[in-house]
Amino acid sequence: MRLTITLQSDEKINLPVNYNHMIQAMIYNVMDDPTFRAYLHEHGFELGKRSFKMFTFSWLMGKSVFEESTKRIIFEPPVKLVVCSPMNSIMRELGSGLLKKKYIRLGENLLQISEIATMNNDVNESRIRVKMLSPIVVYSTFEKPDQNKQTHYYSPFEERFNELVKQNLEKKYFIVYGENLSEDGFLIEPVKVGGRHFVITSYKNTWIKGWMGEYELRGNPKLLKLALDAGLGSKNSLGYGCCEVVQGK
């Protein structure tokens, strides 16, 4: 499911260029049940040694300018934020919490919640084209001979990229449906992706490499729906991997 939140303000919205942590904190704070909120934040949905929070969100969407002198981004209100999750419990808590509030705070900005729209990410085809609303992040961590760890971020043009996205989606599928996907076929292929779509962002002083752009997804419709609901790639709950279907493609 997808929530689109429209935020209004009497003043321009002034944020650091890397503001993902502010939106993530807002999402947790808005959730209605403090016990559920704490459990999701601290534990999430566990699978083996991994934990998945099972939600993702977009960059803020609206007119903006980058202020070079302060390294901040200035938005002209209104702005829209998309939050997606396949888990009814998360969307229920978030929706209920938002309906009880008139305002939310992002940094020093007090924003009015002017509209909340819901939409089911229904997929009935085995082939869709998606546009990233926040960067897709795909990586592996290796241990070097000196026992220090090194992270390699993959580009959509590397062969391993597709396999890691597929494995990640299959884990999310098991969490949602309680069973392994019976079909092997899945493909993510860059369609409108070039050098300008490569982005390096920072989350709490950690540099993260990702890619925007448009991609074609092929596979089981339930798996493609999950890609829309839970996000593509890793670090979804930090604000990465959110996407939407490109209409008419």
Describe the protein in words.
The protein is 24% helix and 39% strand. By secondary structure, the chain is of the alpha+beta class. The chain has 2 domains: 118 residues, Alpha-Beta Plaits (2-Layer Sandwich), CATH 3.30.70; 119 residues, 2-Layer Sandwich (Alpha-Beta Plaits). A hairpin with a 2-residue loop joins β8 and β9. The longest helix has 19 residues. The chain is globular and about 50 Å long.
Structural class: alpha+beta
Tell me what portion of residues adopts beta-strand conformation: 35-45%
Low-confidence stretches: none
Topology order in helix (H) and strand (E) letters: EEHHEEEEEHEEEEEHEEEEHE
Any idea how many domains?
2
Rounded radius of gyration (Å): 18 Å
Strand runs, count: 17
CA distance, first residue to last residue = 21 Å
Q: Specify the helix fraction band.
A: 10-25%
Q: Overall mean pLDDT score?
A: 94
Q: What overall geometry do the principal axes of the alpha carbons give?
A: globular
| Count of individual helical segments | 5
CATH classification class of the largest domain: Alpha Beta
Can you tell me the CATH topology of the largest domain? Alpha-Beta Plaits
The CATH architecture of the largest domain is: 2-Layer Sandwich
**Biggest pleated-sheet summary:** 7 strands, antiparallel
